[in-house]
Amino acid sequence: MKLKAKRKEYLDLREEIKTLLDKTNSAPLLVRLAWHDSGTYDKSIRIEEWPKCGGANGSIRFVPEINHKANSGLVHGLELLKPLKDKHPSISWADLIQMASATAIEQAGGPKIDMRYGRKDVSSAAECAPEGNLPAGAKPWPNNAASAAEHLRAVFERMGFNDQEIVALSGAHTLGRANPERSGLGKDSTKYTDGTSIVRPDGKPGSGRIGGQSWTKQWLKFDNSYFQDVTGDDDDLLKLDTDRALFADERLKVHANEYRESATDFFRDYAMAHKKLSELGSKFEPAGGIDIDQVDWCLECPIQ
Ligand code: HEM
């Protein structure tokens, strides 16, 4: 397919994702799906050995990976995206999943993320990432880490992230909820998740499935309230040990305090960290990826 036609297909897909998000209020689920596809990445394994390094390669669509304990509930994200994949077979699962997440962040009121596309998919279950590469939200910390902060550093440094990026990415918990029947964490329901609160960024009613415990009050809106609520005392709002660690650890706290004070700083750093997350372990075709927002494209011009 010519690059221009391919780009048009991505742009069409993005519009369809926007409609899906609006109808299903699924931004948190789709952001988590994309992070769990890419967050298996191990920078110590050379990209030449792709896809052994894990990362944003669509492997989460296969059993056994989708059944990993950390991925509980994410099959519903795949189910939501499947009709779009069927409609756009030439776009990889890896791209579709990452596009859904970046579009969800933006539609929820967050920053625009400078995405590129053209990710290659793994082709079989044999290429799935091993279990245990994603972070735990509660004790016991894997690999004998002494604290939540030590565990976070061990996991995120394996992916190539520093302290500031750990804190920025954790801010994605401004969206969504934990569910006892999925992760075993959070409450069954709160006043923010029982369907009575306005949680959409546009102020319209609706939140999709009822229940669970959110980190923030308006949990379908992307803003910096996570950094304010994590240190608050509202028992209806969730605070995992890994969330509290951002304000307990001296080096992480510097960034958490900055993002609590400045949504602008948070949005800037989140957008950069999210782009990096979305490209971990990805193999692009063409090698530089496809920038679908490039301004010098001319959709009406005959040849490109
Ligand atoms: C810092 C380490 C992290 C830990 C320990 C962690 C842990 C968790 C847990 C336990 C849940 C609840 C899942 C459920 O019960 O349904 C969750 C949900 C979520 N996580 Fe994380 N997470 C981390 C980092 C991230 C990152 C980096 C992102 C995205 C960039 C992210 C995005 C989300 C979202 C959007 C949800 C809500 C999903 C929904 O409402 O369906 N998390 N996370």
Describe the structure.
- With about 300 residues, this protein is mainly alpha-helical.
- The protein has a single domain (about 5-280), classed as Peroxidase, domain 1.
- The chain contains ten helices and two strands.
- Helix 6 (about 165-170) crosses helix 9 and helix 8 packs across helix 9 (about 250-260).
- The protein is globular.
- The chain starts with a helix and ends in a 26-residue tail after the last helix.
- The model has no long low-confidence stretch (mean pLDDT about 95).
- The structure holds protoporphyrin IX containing FE.
- Protoporphyrin IX containing FE (HEM) binds next to helix 2, helix 6 and strand 1.
Which properties best describe this structure?
single chain; mainly alpha; 304 residues; two-stranded antiparallel ribbon; 2 strands; binds protoporphyrin IX containing FE; Peroxidase, domain 1
Briefly say what this structure is:
With 304 residues, the chain is mostly helical.
Number of helices: 10
Distance between the termini: 11 Å
What is the CATH architecture descriptor? Orthogonal Bundle
Q: Summarize the amount of helix as a percent range.
A: 40-55%
Map the helices and strands.
Elements: H1 3-24, H2 27-38, H3 75-87, H4 93-107, H5 148-159, H6 163-170, E1 177-178, E2 213-214, H7 225-229, H8 241-248, H9 250-261, H10 263-278
Antiparallel strand pairs: 1-2
Helix pairs in contact: 1-4, 2-4, 3-4, 6-9, 6-10, 8-9, 9-10
Bound molecules: protoporphyrin IX containing FE (HEM).
